[in-house]
């Protein structure tokens, strides 16, 4: 279960070279400390080779060992580090929901997450089917001068998220036939539609005042593998002592300038199909795409003489479920690239499976995995959330 942290850095940056120091404490030691400090006993699973107390950390339980795997408790930057500078609105992400009517019309709901840089700004969200502008929807959104209320001009108010500068605007699009439905493997074709979602400022404040005078240069990321004496070295601002504790350096490129994705040198780290970092801070539209299949999935549960029925229907057709349980793609997370997930999904299809359950004791799979399932016609019946295996302490 990886976690993305987004932190404000403008007040910390200065002219010239900026260095980001990240200290990562050993997971087994951190778990033991939290367990010792907790006033109540929290049961967990123990195997002879397992490291205990995995339920006291937000970390995949399988990292601490399981009946099928070793105890490594790996820790590190699972992905990449990006420094983003912007003076305009841009898209953080988008989710797509769909509702099918009895008249065979389909309503798509695009929940678009927007990040605002300044108040008193308007922007246009435009959504259309790639290479076909017949399916199109657009909406104007506007930020308020208070910076806490952002409303739309042409639709219901969007929902504010945790950050008051981030809102989720819902844009609707109604589709009528002709269109093709998506089917599970063995029941029909897997037709996929690609939608382009863009946001562009339509009015803006004085951008010369909004722009920062700082230019984002390169940075050195120091990953600390042994926390002993780290606090003293950090307090003394002694970088050499920090490095002697055992660390590795990662060069973080200026994504705002070059538009590059950064990784840990393996080529399997942070990649992004959605965000064009070279456009952050520009006055142009930011664009992402979403590829979906048009389908209606229903779980049928009806009382029977003995118990109840439990089966799925896709587009009104009962589906005979044939599936498996996916734990983790690799015990070393950074080795699980798109090729690895493609092999797993293709193996499931070759075994005549049409459903997969994602186990809650591992990692959340990347978007590549879900895209491959859509392309191959595999349904995800259960994608378990974290904290799905043992009991957990409060808080």
Contiguous runs where pLDDT drops below 50 for at least 5 residues: 147-162, 205-228, 239-282
Question: In the CATH hierarchy, what is the class of one domain?
Answer: Mainly Beta
Number of helical elements:
7
End-to-end span in angstroms? 17 Å
CATH topology assignment of one domain: Immunoglobulin-like
How many strands, what sense, and barrel or not for the largest sheet?
5 strands, antiparallel
The overall average pLDDT, rounded, is: 77
- How many E strands? 18
What is the chain-wise order of helices and strands? EHEEEEEEEEHEHHEHEEEEEHEHE
Q: What would you note in describing this structure?
A:
With 395 residues, the chain is an alpha+beta fold. Among the domains are: 90-210 and 281-292, Immunoglobulins (Immunoglobulin-like, Sandwich), CATH 2.60.40.10; 297-383, Rossmann fold. 14% of the residues lie in helices and 29% in strands. It is built from seven helices and 18 strands. The chain has helices spanning 27-37, 207-210, 230-235, 239-244, 255-258, 338-350, 367-376, and strands at 18-23, 90-100, 106-115, 122-129, 132-143, 150-152, 159-160, 166-175, 193-203, 219-224, 247-252, 286-292, 297-300, 311-314, 317-319, 323-326, 355-358, 379-383. It has a five-stranded antiparallel beta sheet with strand order 6-5-4-9-12, with no helix packed on it. Strands 2-3-8-7 form a four-stranded antiparallel beta sheet, with no helix packed on it. The relative contact order is 0.16. Mean pLDDT is 77; it is low at 147-162, 205-228 and 239-282.
């Amino acid at each position: 279960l990886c976690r993305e942290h987004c932190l404000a850095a403008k007040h910390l940056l200065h002219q010239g070279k900026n260095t980001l120091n990240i200290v990562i404490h050993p997971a087994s030691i951190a778990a033991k400390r939290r367990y010792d400090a907790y006033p109540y006993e929290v049961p967990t699973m123990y195997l002879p080779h397992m490291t205990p107390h995995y339920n006291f950390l937000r970390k995949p339980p399988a990292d601490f060992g399981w009946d099928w795997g070793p105890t490594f408790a790996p820790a590190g930057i699972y992905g990449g580090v990006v420094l983003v500078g912007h003076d305009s609105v841009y898209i953080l992400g988008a989710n797509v929901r769909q509702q099918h009517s009895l008249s065979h019309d389909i309503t798509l709901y695009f929940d678009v997450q927007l990040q605002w840089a300044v108040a008193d700004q308007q922007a246009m969200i435009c959504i259309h089917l790639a290479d076909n502008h017949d399916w199109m929807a657009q909406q104007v959104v506007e930020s308020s001068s208070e910076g806490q209320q952002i409303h739309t001009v042409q639709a219901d108010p969007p929902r504010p998220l945790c950050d008051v500068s981030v809102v989720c605007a819902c844009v609707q699009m109604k589709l009528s036939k002709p269109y093709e439905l998506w089917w599970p493997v063995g029941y029909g074709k897997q037709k996929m539609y690609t939608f382009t979602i863009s946001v562009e400022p339509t009015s803006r404040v004085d951008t010369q005042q909004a722009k920062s005078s700082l230019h984002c240069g390169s940075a050195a990321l120091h990953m600390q593998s042994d926390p002993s004496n780290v606090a003293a070295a950090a307090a003394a601002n002694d970088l050499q002592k920090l490095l002697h504790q055992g660390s590795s350096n990662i060069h973080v490129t200026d994504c705002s300038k070059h538009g590059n994705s950064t990784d840990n040198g393996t080529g399997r780290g942070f990649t992004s199909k959605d965000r064009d970092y070279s456009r952050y801070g520009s006055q142009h539209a930011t664009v992402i795409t979403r590829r979906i299949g048009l389908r209606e999935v229903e779980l049928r549960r009806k009382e029977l003489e003995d118990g109840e029925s439990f089966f799925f229907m896709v587009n009104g057709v009962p589906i005979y479920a044939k599936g498996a349980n996916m734990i983790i793609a690799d015990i070393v997370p950074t080795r699980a690239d798109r090729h690895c997930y493609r092999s797993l999904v293709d193996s499931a299809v070759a075994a005549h499976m049409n459903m997969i359950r994602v186990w809650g004791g591992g990692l959340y799979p990347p978007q590549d995995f879900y895209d491959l399932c859509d392309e191959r016609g595999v349904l995800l019946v259960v994608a378990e959330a974290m904290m799905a295996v043992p009991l957990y302490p409060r808080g």
